[in-house]
Amino acid sequence: MLSTMPSRHAPSPSFIDLMLDAVCVVDRAGHFVYVSAAFEQIFGYTPDEIVGRQMLDLVHPDDRERTLKAASEIMAGDPKLHFENRYLRKDGQEVHIMWSARWSPADQLRVAVARDISARKQAESMQAALYAISEAAHTAESLSTLFERIHQIIVALLPALNFSVSLRDEPDGELTFAYHVDEQPQAHTKTDISLFNQEILRSGHPLLLTRQTQPWLPKRLHRLLGSDGQQCWLGVPLQSHQSIIGTLVLKRYAGSSPYTDKDQELLQFVSTQIAAAIERKQFTATLLHIAQHDQLTGLPNRALLHDRLHTALARARREYGQVALLYLDLDKFKAINDQHGHATGDLLLQAVAARLKACVREVDTVARFGGDEFVLLLENVDLPEHALGVAQKILATLSQPMELGGVQVQILPSIGMAFYPEHGDAPMQLLKQADSSMYHAKNQGGNRVAYHPHS
Predict the structure, then answer these.
(1) Which of 87, 164, 186, 226 has a Cα at 20 to 30 A from 103?
(2) Do 222 and 194 form a contact (C-beta atoms < 8 A)?
């Protein structure tokens, strides 16, 4: 059906309404004066609803400035072929349009053909998202960084301001929140998200919760729509080759368009790549942890200690701070190992590691240097007396007997201390000084701390 524009502007061939592309005519002021039947299919408005309205009202706000510029160039006599911009349909959905337009000087009208390229744009966006997720899996420094980049990638595909990733813990399989962003942190508790997650895991399928889908979903989920029923949720399982490793959940608050089946399909499409990226980063993190930690005690090993010592010294130089090293050796460990066996010796090393960690701050490092030797790295030490206090605490803690596999054992340490900048500014220089002080403590009978002030 044609609009009521003056007959001198109306196209005579009725087959124009058979075209899949929409033919549009706009006057100099930017008002629609004619649209073909395909306009309703693409934009959602009938010709009667749209004729007389401003064309710019339908343009996506982010594209209005360049659309106005293109319209001015067209009216100046510069035809446009394949100009792309975005419009908002009557139902609020975004649609990508490719225009071909020219100006009719005689009629003082812009005549244009509009083609819906949303499907092509979505396919391009999805492929770009898959590539970006794969790249993030290789370049992200950590899981938290990976989640931040995935969030940014998803935001480019669909509304995802409120975004949550939950991962299954091994071996109990319980979900924990790995990443969570919410524009209204108090609006929904993590209990609500957990409830939604449980339904995703129970079904093993994507879940779309809106006022429209509510009748077909369990009643326990209905309260998640909010008191006005206008909030909506969209979640997908993160499926690896073998199992579901977690969930990805989005939600929108009242006042915004609800998620659709198309949004669900899109999120499900990228979820497999997201799961693969997470597994890759977890595997890489596991390998790195194995390479940098002692398998028996779980403490940082010699290599990681050297890295942290280099970093600590560089920071201390910048901030004019002081660093302390405590070199610890267990007195008569070999005798205990020989008397009670290697299994008891291993239990003893694990118990010592736990007690040493309890003696320092979280920012400090307790490392197993090898055998029955441990090194403690203390940063931001104001005075040597503070490090000495830590050493005395270690002596008191380790002097308490330990019950190990039915065997009561007591172990005493010898501890040597060294300080930056007092004893040098190089890692090996400080380690050598702390080691020398430790042997001095041992030669004095053990179970003591030795520290040689720089003369």
Answers:
(1) 87
(2) no
* Phi-psi label, residue 95: left if phi above 0, alpha if psi -120 to 50, beta otherwise: beta
**14-116 adopts what CATH topology?**
Beta-Lactamase (3.30.450)
Which of these CATH numbers, 3.40.50.2300, 3.60.10.10, 2.60.40.2550, 3.30.450.40, describes 121-291? 3.30.450.40
The rounded distance, in Å, linking the Cα atoms of 190 and 199 is 14
Task: Evaluate whether 285 touches 143 at the Cβ level (below 8 Å).
Answer: yes
pLDDT for 199-222, tens place per residue?
A: 999 999 999 999 999 999 999 999
Cite the beta strand spans of 44-137 per DSSP E.
80-88, 94-104, 109-116
Tokens encoding 109: 């009208």
Q: Could you give the CA distance from residue 364 to residue 362 in angstroms, rounded to a whole number?
A: 5
Beta bridge partners of 24: 35, 112
CA dihedral 101, 102, 103, 106 (to 10 degrees): -120
CA dist 451 and 434 (Å) reads 8
Does 121-291 match 14-116 at the fold level?
Answer: yes
- The token pair that represents 249 in the structure block: 């959940």
The predicted model scores a pTM of 0.71
Q: Residue 242 carries which DSSP code?
A: S
Tokens encoding 76: 């100046």
Dihedrals phi, psi of 355, to nearest 5 degrees: -70, -35
Q: Are residues 221 and 211 in contact, defined by beta-carbon separation less than 8 angstroms?
A: no
CB atoms within 10 A of CB 112: 24
Q: What digits encode the pLDDT tens for the residues 334-382?
A: 999 889 898 999 999 999 999 999 999 999 999 999 999 999 999 999 8
Given a cut of 70, whether residue 425 has pLDDT beyond it is: yes
